TrEMBL record:
This is Acetyltransferase. It holds the Pfam family Hexapep. It is an enzyme of class 2 (transferase). It comes from Paenibacillus terrae. The lineage of its organism: Bacteria, Bacillati, Bacillota, Bacilli, Bacillales. SUPFAM superfamilies: Trimeric LpxA-like enzymes. Residues 5-59 form the Maltose/galactoside acetyltransferase domain. Belongs to the transferase hexapeptide repeat family. The keyword Transferase applies. Keywords: Acyltransferase, Repeat, Transferase. CDD domains: LbH_MAT_GAT (cd03357). Its EC number is 2.3.1.-.
Length: 205
C-alpha cells in the first residue's frame, strides 16, 4: 500500500491529507509565516528560513515577501535565485530551479492538477506533475507556469505569459499560451555587453 505522499510525488492520484502531508504542510505554513512577517533588517534570518523550507538551495537566495508554497520541501533552487513580490509555488510535485534564475512580481509555479471528470474531481482526488526551470532564466511579472512544463537554459519569458508547454534553450517566449517569439542571438549579447560597459564607465556611486 502506498501513502498519499508517495502517490503525490509519483504523479498519481492522491488525497491531500494524511499524517505525512499534514506534517509537511504545517512546517511550511509556519516557516512561510515567519518569513513573511520578517523585516528588511533580517536578511540572514530570511535565508535561514528558506534553507529550512526548501529541499536544497544554492548561494545568494533572495525572495521578496510575501511568498507562498504548499510544502517547500519539494523545491530546489540553485545559485543566485531571486523572486520578487507575491511569488507562489505550488509544489505537490518536484520544482527544480537552476542557477541565475530571476522571477518578476506575481510569478506562479503550479505543479497541481485536477481530474477533468467532475465526478472524480468532486471526490477531492488530485495529482501533480513536476516543473523544471533551467539556468540563466528571466521570468516576467504575472507569468503562470503550469504542471509538467520544462523551461530550458538562457530563456526570457515575457510578462503575463501562460506557459503550458516546454520552452527550448536560448529563446524569448511570450503569450497565452506562451510561444517562442525568437532566438537569443550574438547581436543581443553584443548590444547588452555595450550597455553594461557604458554603465560602468558612467556610474559614480
Amino acid at each position: 500500500m502506498a501513502t498519499n505522499k508517495e502517490n503525490m510525488l509519483e504523479g498519481k492520484l492522491y488525497m491531500a491529507g494524511g499524517k505525512e502531508l499534514a506534517k509537511d504542510s504545517k512546517k511550511s505554513r509556519m516557516l512561510t509565516r515567519l518569513f513573511n512577517n520578517s523585516t528588511e533588517e533580517q536578511q540572514e534570518y530570511r535565508v535561514e528560513l528558506l534553507k529550512q523550507l526548501f529541499e536544497s538551495t544554492g548561494q545568494e537566495i533572495y525572495i521578496e515577501p510575501p511568498f507562498r508554497c504548499d510544502y517547500g520541501c519539494h523545491i530546489t533552487v540553485g545559485n543566485q535565485f531571486y523572486a520578487n513580490y507575491d511569488c507562489i509555488i505550488i509544489d505537490v510535485a518536484k520544482v527544480t530551479i537552476g542557477d541565475h534564475v530571476f522571477f518578476g512580481p506575481r510569478v506562479g509555479v503550479y505543479t497541481a492538477g485536477h481530474p477533468i471528470d467532475s465526478d472524480v474531481r468532486n471526490t477531492l482526488l488530485e495529482f501533480g506533475k513536476p516543473i523544471t526551470i533551467g539556468n540563466s532564466v528571466w521570468i516576467g511579472a504575472n507569468t503562470v507556469i503550469t504542471p509538467g512544463v520544462n523551461i530550458g537554459n538562457n530563456v526570457v519569458i515575457g510578462a503575463g505569459s501562460i506557459v503550458t508547454k516546454d520552452i527550448p534553450d536560448n529563446v524569448v517566449a511570450v503569450g497565452n499560451p506562451c510561444k517562442v517569439l525568437r532566438e537569443i542571438t550574438d547581436e543581443d549579447r553584443r548590444y547588452w555587453e555595450k550597455q553594461k560597459n557604458d554603465y560602468y564607465a558612467d556610474i559614480e556611486d
